[in-house]
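Entry:
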Amino acid sequence: PSLLGAPELHSLSNLVGWAYFCAWSVSFYPQIMTNHARRSVVGLSLDYVALNVLGYVCYSAYNLALFSSPDLRPPGGDLVRVNDVFFSLHALVCCLVVAIQCCVFPRGEQRVTLLVRVALVLTTMGIAVYVVHAATRACPTGCTWIDLLFSVSCVKLAVTVAKYVPQVVLNNRRCSTVGWNIDNVVLDFTGGLLSTTQLLLDAGCTGGTLISDPVKFGLGVLSMAFDSVFLYQHF
């Protein structure tokens, strides 16, 4: 029998969604507390921190736009839930707190690499130019807000891959995970699993697919993959 519109699935999806919100949201705090307790960010990749801020700026904009504007929602149904919006905004605030800690606390010889700095500047400039073109309709090929959101979602997914790599390399080079809190990894893996589960439930309710919200799907899968690497490095 069809599961479309089953109230039980909607209720379970809401429960799983807020569970992932809690797991992923809480996952930011162990690192913040570790930095504060050590009065140091040595062992935490600054490239990871910088890319994380950019990623959650993009993810917040993506979720807010899709949640608030019916015209931008995917054909398979609205798979961006209110917990997605709250999570992305809360995550952005937490990332900014960690970034401030990196500016205040000793960081040893660690620096944001030139490659990441260039990538941040070029990405920010590219998005700004696209926004201006979409707002003024100055693009000859017809720049739309939907195209902009798709581009922003691609940035977030690319950042999700790129941001973990410097931390993996740093852990491997130091042969240590000191300074990189493992609790946030466990919670991050849990959040990724629950987020993907909610997407599966929503797809069953609406008749959509897992890739109806490719950003959420990609975030969940990629987070679990890299978290598995961090768990291996730590243990």
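Helices lie at 7-26, 29-38, 46-68, 82-104, 114-136, 145-174, 182-206, 214-234.
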